[in-house]
Design brief:
Rossmann fold; 6-stranded parallel beta sheet; 42% helix; globular; binds NADP nicotinamide-adenine-dinucleotide phosphate; oxidoreductase activity, acting on the CH-OH group of donors, NAD or NADP as acceptor
Length: 215
């Protein structure tokens, strides 16, 4: 495969950092979207990755800003959409802090991809949370990618992350079909490992809370 250019959304994230590292190691050029490219505390570690100084570009983009990803995906060969709120306090602002960025953000990214003439494939990091929350989970097991989380189940048990990820993935498939986008979705469960960034994010904070006994 020749050297190509890829966009990774949510460049400061745990999974995104590994994607960026790997793409750079393979000689590709990477555009990583971040909310604030000037925030050295958050993005500084990315510049230390092998090949970053030559082939990494940071592009400002926010999930809640329509067309925010247009520049980031224009001209790239493929897009890895990982950006999403993950660990947010379940309070009155759940719509603003979690549901809207997750669903509207995915729509924004996919719409930007549909406008790009160059994107050959989009890889969306969904979640096993989009599969496993159902009233009939036990009877229907083993569950696989043909199963969907039941949105009514999520509402009944306040599973708003699962609600948001399921809705976002459904919207992504709808937009992809509408615009002829080659979409691949991955549905991970607990992704852990050595931290590349300066501070633990979402899942590692959960693991830390379990170790410390605060969860
Ligand atoms: N880690 C897991 O175990 C796991 C399991 C299943 C699925 N996933 C999915 O995989 C993806 C990556 O997970 P992760 O663990 O790597 O997440 P993470 O480390 O918490 O990173 C999340 C990223 O999303 C960005 N983000 C959040 N809200 C945003 C907004 N409004 N606009 C732009 N960017 C925003 C964050 O940017 P800031 O730094 O600016 O906040 C950060 O870069 C997520 O979609 C998650 O749902 C993760």
């Amino acid at each position: 495969m020749g050297k190509q250019e890829y966009c990774v959304t949510g460049g400061t994230g745990f999974i995104a950092a590994y994607l960026i590292k790997s793409l750079l190691q393979h000689g590709h050029t990477v555009r990583a979207t971040v909310r604030d490219p000037g925030d050295e505390d958050k993005v500084g570690f990315l510049w230390e990755l092998e090949g970053a100084k030559e082939r990494l570009k940071l592009v400002k983009a926010d999930l809640l800003v329509p067309e925010s990803f247009d520049d980031a995906v224009r001209g790239v060969d493929g897009v890895f959409h990982t950006a999403s709120p993950v660990l947010v306090p379940y309070d009155d602002n759940i719509q603003e802090s979690l549901i809207d960025p997750c669903i509207k953000g995915t729509l924004n990214v996919l719409r930007s991809c549909s406008k790009s003439q160059t994107v050959k494939r989009v890889v969306l990091t969904s979640s096993c949370s989009s599969i496993r929350y159902r009233f009939d989970a036990q009877a229907a097991s083993p569950l696989d990618e043909s199963n969907w989380t039941d949105l009514d189940y999520c509402k009944r048990y306040n599973l708003w992350y699962a609600f948001a990820k399921t809705s976002a993935e459904k919207e992504a498939w709808r937009i992809a079909e509408e615009h002829g986008i080659d979409l691949v979705v991955v549905n991970p469960s607990f992704v852990v490992g050595p931290l590349l960034g300066p501070k633990p994010t979402s899942t590692l904070l959960l693991v830390l809370a379990i170790i410390k006994g605060s969860l």
